[in-house]
Amino acid sequence: MKCSYRREGEGGRAESLRGRAYSLQLTADSSMGLGVRADSLRLRANSFGWRAYGALVAMTIFLLLATASISHAQHYGHDMRNYFDFGEQCYAAVEQSPDASALQIRINTANALFSFLKTDRAHSSLGEYFAVRDISVELREKPAGSVLKTLNARDTIYTNNFAATTSKESWVSFSKSISLDGVTLPQTVEAHIEVRDGFLTRLANRPLNMDVLLRSFHREKSVTGADSTFIGTSDVVIFDKAEDSYTYRCKNWGNTTEFSRDLTGGISLALGKNVKVDSINVRLSQISNIFQDKDFAPVLKSSSSVNPEDIIPERIISPAGADSEIVYKISEPDKKDSAVTYYAALFTLPGKMLEQGKYRLDVKIKAAGVIRSFSQPVELQWHYMPLSLENPRDAIPPLAHITTDDEYHDLSTGSRDEQIRKLYAFWKKQDPTPETAYNERMAEFYRRADYAYFNFARNARQLDGAVTDRGKIYILYGPPTNIERSFLLGEQPMEIWTYTNNVKKIIKFSDPGGHGDYKLREVKPL
Predict the structure, then answer these.
(1) Which H or E run includes 417?
(2) Which of 63, 287, 274, 94 is CA-nearest to residue 193?
(3) pLDDT at residue 496 tops 60
(4) What per-residue confidence (pLDDT) applies to 419?
(5) At a CB cut-off of 8 Å and minimum separation 6, what does 163 contact?
(6) What topology does CATH give the domain 110-214?
(7) Cα–Cα distance measured from residue 208 to residue 148, given in angstroms and rounded to the nearest whole number
(8) Is the N or C terminus of the chain more exposed, i.e. has fewer CB atoms within 10 Å?
């Protein structure tokens, strides 16, 4: 996001609006309780056309009514590039089955990647709009690059409204398996994944290349030399929520999951017949954070031994369906093997204090005197982080509303990395729940800043809405209960914001130039 910032003096503004971080009015009535949700503050692609449409309407009214004051009635500056360039729109993961016979390919795509057409009458019950998604997967040798296996699939995506066709928050999952018959194990291969728009026959997203370590199973002798003591393991699956004790859902964000929450996951095991699991230990180590990606000394963050009652015999964890998420079932394996005993193991690692960054899961399984260990990367992200938090040049200017001059000067000086550190340190002091890594007050502040940046900008070329008078009021008090707008001939455009919640204020703005640069004129109690 690009925005220019010009810090103004407080002259002519109500002094009572200048607050401190601890007085952000983030109470039940004025913030979280007002229904300010991430999805409502994010830019919707289908609203971008209103800029051109609004300009046309404004010009028409100007010619008919001979007034220039209506040229910025209800549309504000939007920059669609910020919306479409922000965030990942395609995630993928490749998981190996516990018996090493197949790879499970999981892909999740946002609707914004595809072109949609109106659905015909015969298929209207499936959705109002549809798109075609082509997926191709190649397993390639490393480093030679010879193709070992391929998977090609085509499916149809349906939506029920136009807004969802361009949404980056509407996802559709894909899950298929590739047999590893004839592939030499163990070895490291590359999974090359391409997602195409079926209508435009072009890449919908940049190709994804993932290194996959293929583990062996029967072909690998144990340390004792007897096949009866082998331990086959699947990759770890991280769950998002449980529907019941045997059904779980996963957002299908590849090897990433949400930060600041407990990590619940599962592993499928395949052991020699009549071999029982002695113990399973899972450890989570942090290997980077948002401040430092390289030369980060690994830090053990959490460790847990799987409870014996959570090691379920004759069950595996397998995908059972996909919509916007992947559904996993703990169920009997499809293929019976007289030489194998399957297990599904579930674990939970405490994670409320886990911050954003890269981590490593280390799993150690002990059975019949044999130990098998493996590691798997996982990244914890804030998937719906406000746009304005992506860069300190956007995150720091709105802080002028809640800091002293000295505090603001300190936050806005130094290198980019230094500013990020100081920014998070500032908000850490304001965290209402220091026992978690998620800072509700910071999140709400920047959700409001996002809305202000895009909706209260002075003009379409200068995304500075968060530092305007309306932006300041919106950030401090949240969305008003009611907005009245007045565009009378010969008078300045006016906006009157009424807060009937615990803010209890009536706030008036006027636009002297008629170009959308509204100034605060009056604040009075309700």
Answers:
(1) helix 416-429
(2) 94
(3) yes
(4) 96
(5) 44, 46
(6) Immunoglobulin-like (2.60.40)
(7) 17
(8) C
Average pLDDT rounded to a whole number, residues 123-135: 95
pLDDT at 44 over 60: no
Reported as a pLDDT band with limits 50, 70 and 90, residue 451 is very high
- Please give the CATH number for the structural domain made up of 221-384: 2.60.40.10
The CA distance from 269 to 249, in Å, is 20
- Which residues, 6+ apart, have CB-to-CB distance to 308 below 8 Å? none
pTM of the model: 0.74
User: Do 110-214 and 221-384 fold alike per CATH?
Assistant: yes
Angle between helices 440-455 and 469-477 (to 10 degrees): 150
Q: What is the C-alpha separation between 378 and 299, in angstroms, rounded? A: 14
CA distance 155 to 198: 9
Domain residue spans in the chain? 15-49+390-525, 110-214, 221-384
Per-residue pLDDT at 21 exceeds 60: no
Pairing of strands 482-486, 311-313: unpaired
Distance between CA atoms of residues 411 and 414, nearest Å: 8
